[in-house]
Amino acid sequence: MRNLGGITLVSQRSRTTSSMRQHTDLSEGRSQKPARTPNKLYHTESILSLIEIILAITMGKCTFNDLWLEDCAFSSWLKPVANNRYQAYCTLCKKMFELSSLGIKALKSHAKSEKHIVAVKGLKRVQAIRQFCSAPSLTLPGPSTARDSVSVASSATHSGFGSTSTLKAEVLWVLNTVTKHQSYNGNEDIAKLFRTMFPDSDIAKTFTCGKDKTSYITRFGLADYIKKDLISKVSGPYVLMFDESLNHTSKKKQLDIYVRFWNDDKVHSRYLGSHFIGHSTAQDLLKHFKECVQQLNLSRLVSVSMDGPNVNLKFFELLQSDLNEMYGGAQLVSVGSCGLHTLHNAFKAGFSMWQVEKLLRAMHILFNNVPARREDYVTVTKSSVFPLSFCGHRWLENLPVVERALEVWPSLQLYVDAVKRKELPNPGTGSYDTIEAAQKDPLILAKLHFFATIARTFDPFLKRYQTDEPVMPFLAKDLAELIKSILRRFVKREVLQDITKLQLTKLDLSEKKNLLLPQKIDIGLGADKALKDTKISDLRVLEFRRDCMQGLTNIVRKVQEKSPLKYATVRQMACLDPSNMFRDPDRCKEQMKCLVQTFLQAKQLAGGVSAGRSSSGRGFDQS
Prior knowledge:
Elements: E1 2-3, E2 8-9, H1 38-59, E3 78-80, E4 87-90, E5 95-98, H2 104-111, H3 114-125, E6 137-139, E7 149-151, H4 165-179, H5 190-197, H6 202-206, H7 211-233, E8 238-247, E9 252-263, E10 266-277, H8 282-292, E11 301-305, H9 310-326, H10 339-351, H11 356-367, H12 371-381, H13 399-420, H14 430-439, H15 444-465, H16 472-487, H17 493-496, H18 501-504, H19 525-533, H20 538-561, H21 568-572, H22 578-583, H23 585-601
Helix pairs in contact: 4-7, 8-9, 10-15, 10-20, 11-14, 12-13, 13-15, 15-16, 15-19
């Protein structure tokens, strides 16, 4: 991610990673060419076909026809070949192909080739220059060398930037530098390289785009335009998302704000800006938040998405109060804090008693960046597989870490035994001492297997909801099923039968009558096998199972504490789930009425509260 003075250009993934998860601001531009009328299209194709037939008969070989360049099916990628009228050039595939006696059919055949189709799909994902071809001009302030006007002609061609060909080339090179996360210093003396590589190019002779100019065009040209373009698109209701983390370069907290809005018939999530802050009380967050979003119309703000520290909840209350005063009682729709953060913290609470993270960290640190120990390890174990790094703030992403730990544990035992026999030097570190102590614990493998089993339970949910797609309609059902899958391991089945989503958040786990006996709880096949393979007393096994039950209880309680299922809006959004619409359309209608009433009461919709009132709608609020 590179900050462009208030705008960050981020390349798009995945739908994957984080929990906030990252996107490219330059990947959403589109160009729409005017559609041809059927008669004109038919007439043009008829003429082209007739020309091809005549050429094939009279000459035996077709030549390039300039009328093809006007056809919308070919104009975006077709070019003539200089000094050879019997060939055509595809700008996407970067190749020439023969027209032979096929003529226009050769173009259609090439357009259906696998390589061309892949290239077309790739073009839709990369930065579209036409996105910036709607504004009249961009003037860069400052010295005369960088003050050239960046003309953005309203055209369907690629002549997007600058009043000169050289300036267009410089802007395109700056975009390439930023979108590929290249260093500004890498552009020093680039002009000399281009002049050497392209001695016959007039553009290369006048091209100058070193470190300073790259930074200047980015900061005062592109960033300002991109932000204005984004603000202009956020014209309807929108949601703001923010998160703060330590910036290791500036040694300050970095408050990043994203905006999610509806445009071009789909939901967009775009980076809006960042603020660097020292103190981060609720009042401080509110101040910097307002400064960052001051160009947006806050009366159209629907909700704010954030993680769940108490300071953020206090910030939300202060923002609600301000908006209430500014816009006559308008309220934000609350759906709770980030559910993924809640799950990570809940999982951490369930396994803190065993300090599994201490062992997993030690396994990685012992061999990380220590070539001598790695060589000794490979020599003794005949294995080149090493432990992975443990992530301390996203515990559920450590499933591959614990799986690798189980895989290399036998090799680690060989290494420790070799050190004890003094065949290898003793590392003498805290990491080695931790591993040596864990080797003496007969339950260590059972603990690691139980950790992996519960992490696998959460894994499908994380993969589905670490995305920028609008998945709120499915959240209530999937989160309720996730909680039930944990509860089934240690809670009696009759307790969970016909339990509603809201009741799940209020289930009292301190009532022993609701719980299974420790001997009957489900700890997973891996942990069961590890227990059978160890020679320990039944009392130790019973204590381990009680620890497992306590860990599961801690996980569920933590999820209940800040679960999105507590919020009626989250539960009512299930009415937009197509599967629910098919199975129970009447229930979905009632939930929709409740949902509309919620937005009316928050003054997010016009029409008055009575428009959304339903005599039977309140019953579904408890679902």
